[in-house]
Amino acid sequence: MIPMVDLKPQYQALKEEIDAGILRALRDTQFILGPNVTAFEQEAAAYLGVAHAVACASGTDALHLALRAAGIGPGDEVITSAFTFIATAEAIRYVDARPVFADIDPLTFNIDPRSVEALITPATRAVLPVHLFGMPADLSRLMPLCEQHKLTLIEDCAQSFGATIAGRQTGSVGVSGAFSFFPSKNLGCYGDGGLISADSDELATQFRMLRNHGSKVRYHHDVIGYNSRLDELQAVVLRAKLKHIDQYNDQRRQVARWYTELLDGAVQTPLETDNARHVYHQYTILSPHRDRIMSRLQSAGIASAIYYPIPLHRQLAFAGEYRARELPVTERVSAQCLSLPMYPELDEPSVRTIVAEVKEALVG
Prior knowledge:
By secondary structure, the protein is of the alpha/beta class. It has helices at residues 8-28, 35-48, 59-69, 87-94, 113-119, 139-149, 201-211, 232-242, 245-263, 290-299, 328-336, 348-363; strands at residues 52-56, 77-81, 98-102, 124-128, 152-156, 164-165, 168-169, 176-180, 194-198, 215-217, 220-221, 276-277, 283-286, 337-340. Helix 3 (59-69) runs parallel beside helix 4 (87-94). The two termini are 22 Å apart. The mean pLDDT is 97.
């Protein structure tokens, strides 16, 4: 069996440090917003090149708090991608704003700036690009567009920790960035966790209040907030892994190179632009024979996954609100995409086995 992701090698390599850190935290009994959370926030901010990194309970909460702190609310429109996990659009709904779905670039699978521009109305308040699968969105075109129309740009960095565009970390370009530490992410903890990045002192103060019941001083509540605090034990895990994130991402990039070289044009492979550093949270191919490839891999004991089979504008959760919305590139990609196993420790012989099965499926 070759799984989509194998979390055991990282744990075995860091077991001594993680176990000792967790035992220390248990002995110290400071479990809520404790010293490891504080230290992780400082270390993450330094890594990302931002003034503030505020940890929270999940990537979904990070998006929600980022939107609320930016003042997005009822009657506002937020332009985002329909080709992503539903959390992106859920967060917009949480603040009673309306998601407006743009189409995607057929090569990067990220939101298409031309589609974004065509959707801007007087109600548009923000743009929420997703750095999908670890490939940075085209912020070099989106940022000037937002500046021209006085729109807030918030980055969905759930899949892109360590990715860069024009030498800057994702999460350091827009007014804020929202990260997820779900276990399978490039930087993952052993449960749920999230983080919001920003340079603004005012926004960081809002994030910290909102995540902790609207409170800056204990039992003094300035606003109605939430209970969205990163667990101290998860912070131990994240601190241990953060030290190695560049190594992990370099290994993912090597796995991606093997895939691309061995597939040799048999299917559409991921694009990496000159000014961006893709960190391959997923290695996603396109083929009109997607289902045949998936069936062949399954028969060979090789995992694969479809991210995402139903674009957001076609989800039942939106009750037909976007029935008339046509996103041709998004819909074609959803019908043809397939993600192959991807994790730092995946070795070349395994990649060769996977690619051989993909090619056999195409011959059959």
